[in-house]
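Researcher: Re-running this chain for the archive, since the previous output was lost when a drive failed. Same request as before.
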Amino acid sequence: MYSKTHRQNKIKEILRDHAIYNQEELVKFLSEEGIEVTQATLSRDFQELGVVRTSAAEGSRYTLNVEEAGNQIRKLISFEILSVESNEMLIIVRTLAGRAQGVAHYIDKLNSKLILGTIAGDDTILVVPANVKNIADIVQLINKIMNEEKT
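Model: Regenerated structure tokens:
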């Protein structure tokens, strides 16, 4: 029995490497990989992964919606951040154990002009502001991410 993560990674790989026009094709590809999946499970996976139907010259096909996938990642990140603290110089973000690097990567990919960069350990992130005057805005930004799905 394969894990949900393995199955979803395989779905992303198949959608990236092949034009899939219907769910039956995807079920066949997964079956060839030894992964048996029901239509209901596949539909849930599509929703979680942000898979959408797009129009192509050959007809409608399934693709990963990058924006929706970003929203899914943001939801996960919101649960991984435990707290945000700051002083007059720096910002510290505490995360679940082992998640600091993933959260720091997400913060870096925001490409905010307020943030120079991040340094991550196992459960703690040092956020370096571009200017100390930005600290309150950065804390507000991270708090917004942290509380997005918890309210």
